[in-house]
Specification:
With 513 residues, this protein is α/β, with parallel strands linked by helices. The protein contains 14 helices and 20 strands.
């Protein structure tokens, strides 16, 4: 089944994945492609519109990324965002220069004035707040373009050539900080590109099932099943697509949350799947012994996972594909091409070079977390699985700062369980997107009874987020935090101090490692 498509050309900006997420919120299928993608390849996708993303470069430098000028004679509407806006101006006869003495250089929330007669801003208030992040300035606007938005510092905040369907904005409509940003993108998609909005998770399910069947054929698939949302949805999708050709292997690496291994096994006991549980705690702990560097932990766990799967595949016979619940934020944060590696996910950047499978199968690779949950509901998964707390593949290994021991893992499991239990009692858990405890490598002096202690500091982390690409720290009531702290210090040996993380993402990531 074909869908109307929007192409997002990636120029290396930090918010590029959010553009894709916003387009999908408008029920339009989109693909993110490198800005170097040949024109013929773009034309083969028959897009209804193209979006140029932001980027860190100055468009007037010879080393900065450009596009084939023939793109502008194709007849497809284009929206340029930040660098993409400046690329439109630079390529079509305007002039972009470095902003002088701070004039026209803007960062952060900025009051912006819109020409609401422009199709891009139709239906918006005439004044709003937008999120700026640019140090260059459109000193000359190309012929045929009109100015359609301004700020107090910059007269050229937005440009439009309605006859050709070319629009550019210096700000970032894709971020939540921009008021009415989603409406601006929606106007481009529906008012300018003429979209009908024909992409939903129900459609994606059918398309994905057909694609899996075509790729796998009569081959056999081994799924790395963690029991988390991503791998559970991947399991359901694969089961519906290929049924008995699927084997699910759950590797209990001894770094799960309290009782989680048993819960995962019980959850899938009633499914028509071949379910194999591998108890590999000792094996993983030996490999991780003495290792404290987070990237090394991830890569060790990723490699050991693959080795376990290879061994299990040999026991069950020939297996052609290894399936994983990789999702889009995993891919983005693990880095691709010139993108920065924020942290390697064990199922992306942590894979070893040599893998004994024909191919890695990742049916959720282009979905965001909330889309994965929607797909799970479309597949009929129970809500307790679909709404489950995110849990990283490396498990508690990246929630224990420093070296890992069984004793530390047991301590963290008990403390984390109390944190979850108390939040559930108050109903506060329903307001949170993710929450967990971190056993730090810091020890400090305390006093319990009449004795001196020298034990570990435990950090609590809770965030609210719509897409897991940005997140705000959660304002848990002090009374609740007090009960949690008191219980943990009294009930969990080895911890004498509790701290609460009040850092948002960015600058921090959600996980500590």
């Amino acid at each position: 089944m074909s869908h109307e498509t929007v192409i997002i050309l990636d120029f290396g900006g930090q918010y590029n994945q959010l553009i894709a997420r916003r387009v999908r919120e408008c029920q339009i299928y989109c693909e993110v492609l490198p800005c170097t993608t040949p024109l013929e390849e773009l034309k083969a996708r028959n897009p209804i519109g193209i979006i140029f993303t932001g980027g860190p470069n100055s468009v007037y430098l010879e080393t900065s990324p450009q596009v084939d000028p023939a793109l502008f004679t194709w007849g497809v509407p284009i929206l340029g965002i930040c660098y993409g806006c400046q690329l439109l101006a630079h390529t079509l006869g305007g002039q972009v220069t470095e902003a002088q003495d701070g004039a026209a250089r803007e960062y952060g929330k900025t009051v912006t004035y819109y020409d609401t007669s422009c199709p891009l801003f139709r239906g918006l208030p005439e004044t709003g707040v937008s999120w700026m992040s640019h140090g260059d300035y459109m000193a000359k606007v190309p012929a045929g373009f009109s100015l359609t938005a301004r700020s107090d510092a910059c007269p050229n905040v937005a440009i439009a050539d309605e006859a050709r369907g070319f629009y550019g904005v210096q700000f970032h409509p894709e971020v939540n900080h921009t008021e009415h940003g989603l409406q601006i993108l929606r106007n481009f998609l529906y008012e300018i590109c003429g979209a009908a909005g024909d992409w939903t998770m129900g459609d994606y399910k059918q398309t994905a099932i057909a694609a899996i069947r075509e790729k796998v054929g009569d081959g056999r698939v081994l799924l790395a099943l963690s029991g988390g949302v991503d791998s559970s949805v991947a399991a359901a999708l694969l089961a519906e697509a290929i049924g008995s050709q699927l084997t699910c292997v759950f590797v209990d690496h001894g770094l799960m949350r309290l009782h989680e291994g048993d819960e995962v096994e019980a959850a899938f006991a009633q499914w028509e799947l071949q379910f194999i549980r591998v108890n590999a705690e000792d094996r993983f702990l030996v490999r991780l012994a003495g290792e404290s560097e987070p990237e090394r932990k991830r890569k060790i766990i990723g490699e050991e996972f693959i080795r376990v799967f290879e061994e299990e595949s040999q026991k069950i016979g020939a297996v052609d594909f290894l399936a994983q619940g990789t999702i889009y934020p995993d891919v983005i944060e693990s880095g691709a091409g010139d993108a920065a590696v924020i942290k390697s996910h064990h199922n992306v950047g942590g894979l070893p070079d040599c893998v004994d499978f024909k191919e890695i199968l990742e049916p959720l690779r282009m979905l965001f977390k909330d889309e994965v949950r929607q797909l799970g509901r479309e597949l009929g998964l129970p809500e307790y699985l679909v709404a489950r707390q995110p849990f990283p593949g490396p498990g508690l290994a990246i929630r224990i700062i420093g070296d890992i021991t069984k004793e530390k893992a047991d301590t963290l499991r008990e403390a984390d369980f109390i944190f979850h239990e108390e939040l559930a009692k108050t109903g506060e858990d329903r307001n949170l997107s993710q929450y967990f405890a971190v056993l730090t490598n810091t020890r400090s002096v305390g006093v319990m009874g009449d004795g001196r202690t020298y034990d570990y500091t435990l950090a609590l982390r809770a965030v609210s987020t719509a897409d897991f690409m940005t997140a705000d720290w959660a304002r848990i009531p002090y009374e609740t935090l007090d009960r949690i702290s008191t219980r943990i210090v009294n009930e969990v040996p080895g911890i004498n101090r509790i701290v609460y993380d009040i850092t948002s993402k960015p600058p921090a990531t959600i996980e500590w490692e």
